[in-house]
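Appendix B. Chain record.
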Amino acid sequence: MLFYRILLTLLTPAIAVWLLARRLRGRETARGMAERLGGGTGTRPDGPLLWLHGASNGELTSVRWMVEAMVQRCPDLGLIVTCNTETARALVEGWGMAQVTARMAPLDARWAVARFIGRWRPDALLMLENELWPNRILMMAARKRPVLVFGARMSEGSAKAWARLPALCEAMFGALAFVSAQDEMSRTRLRGLGVRPGRLGPVTSLKARGPAPGAVAPLPDTLRHAFTPSATLLAASTHPGEDRAVLEGFARARAAGHVARLILAPRHPRRRAEIEALIRAAGLDFATRSAGADPGAAPVYLADTMGEMDVWYRLAGVTFVGGSLVPAGGHTPYEPARFGSAILHGPYVANFIAVYRALDRAGGARVVADAAGIAAALADLSDAARRAQMAAAAREALEGAPGGGEDALFAALAKALDRPALRT
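Structure tokens predicted for this chain:
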């Protein structure tokens, strides 16, 4: 632990420069900077308060159903939700829940965490997936505030890195009050790193749980009439370095008559101008969602908004899952599978390796490496029977994913917050 604190102290000037650079580039607001330093505006609500932390959009979207259940079961419960990106904060604010406050997460420096805890006085901390921050964990535990982790992910490489710091591991992992891993290998590694066996809950993948297709709001007529799923490709949560390949692959397939429309939904909407330039360079007409433009007959629809990904999944017969053509680890395939879309992905899927292996084995997904691969896949999937077969295989492969264990998660929250109503 001493090594970690010394390292953070030495890195403080670099962190300050990083924050300033983000601010100058318009990627950080003054409000966000203040919150990262443990400050900002706002006052603690009365009653119990849960600090919920998730890295970004995917993690927080995966627990929206849980947040909704918590505030319904326990009306006096407040939640302060922290995240690492401005887009994720906007996503949470878009939920429109009066009991939920969204903020940028404090840096994991002792002084920043102390300012945050002192201001908000959370009764418990719930972290999602691989967001394991030593100072947040240990400073909450030192105040006798339970720390829980849901959907914990621990790769082999991360486990080896943590194991190089045995004293830190013993203190941090030993301080966790409850941990539910997202797969058996993560569970085994977490136990080896120091999580006490009695504090390990059931294996649960939060992203395997989501709204049924019939439970979401009806599609707007302008979108429902503009897109025919059998002729539409969705590129979901794309990262820099992927859009060009997607556009080129789509253009080839469109020229051959295999697909008509592309919905391009970048991971970060702030990349709008960059992506618009790429679309123009590809010689394709387009409409931009954030500009209020209707799709019309444009072959490309730039879906650069937050909180609408479920809409785009319902409009596409084929989905390319982003973050996988570049080494970003990939994003979840659960949503496109749930909405009946055939799935394409690149080779970089370390974040969900077991899930993608199951999909690939079952014929529920197809690996593409570049524009040519995307074009070839779209040619193959222009056949309705083949596309339906892949979508059905994806749903079947993911039906057995460990998405249960909800009772144990709510029981852990009820104990941590001393609110039995959360169990019901």
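Further analysis of this model is presented in Appendix C.
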